[in-house]
Design brief:
It is a single chain. By secondary structure, the protein is an alpha+beta fold. It contains five helices and six strands, in the order E-H-H-E-H-E-E-H-E-E-H. The chain has one domain: Reverse transcriptase/Diguanylate cyclase domain (Alpha-Beta Plaits, 2-Layer Sandwich), CATH 3.30.70.270. It is elongated.
Length: 171
């Protein structure tokens, strides 16, 4: 049985992928996400391993006029997604879900590892982003669900994690 890469509490142990400028894969629904990650679930079943899923919802900044332009929103989400991708292992799958949500499938990870990653991401993702020459603040809400306890497939796990999200502003 091979040993999975471990999560370290120290960010210096993370691989440097700062030059990565690709868009994350997208899934429009938990069911579509489930199809996308079905291979990882089959592999976990064969090996008797766990998977953890982190669901992240980005709280976009409020402006006095009440909104961001579509270009500002897209650039901000792209910047957040790059920071997110650079804060998890290369073996983990990050999928952009809907307008401002992300699902992170933590391969060969259970609840303790997911808690470490959740704390790291909470610190790394909320705060200031330089986008289009402006400094923008975002908030983040995170929740976790672990396979097989919270769901037997990707869609069930995504729904369980979404249901665990704290109320807006309660991060």
């Amino acid at each position: 049985m091979s040993q999975a890469p471990q999560y370290a509490e120290d960010d210096s142990a993370l691989p440097d992928r700062a030059g990565m400028h690709t868009r994350l894969p997208k899934a429009g629904s938990p069911a579509e996400f489930g199809l996308r990650v079905s291979r990882q679930f089959a592999q976990c079943r064969r090996k008797g391993e766990q998977l953890a899923l982190l669901w992240l919802q980005i709280e976009l900044p409020a402006r006095p006029d009440g909104s961001l332009s579509p270009a500002e929103r897209d650039n901000l989400i792209q910047t957040v997604s790059l920071r997110l991708r650079n804060r998890v292992r290369s073996a983990d799958e990050v999928v952009h879900m809907g307008e401002h949500c992300f699902a992170v499938l933590l391969v060969a990870a259970g609840a303790p590892e997911a808690e470490i990653v959740e704390q790291r991401l909470r610190q790394a993702l909320r705060g200031a982003y330089g986008v289009d020459g402006q400094l923008m603040q975002v908030g983040v809400r995170l929740a976790t669900a672990v396979f097989p306890q919270a769901g037997r497939n990707g869609a069930e796990l995504a729904e369980a994690a979404r249901a665990n999200l704290p109320a807006a502003g309660g991060d």
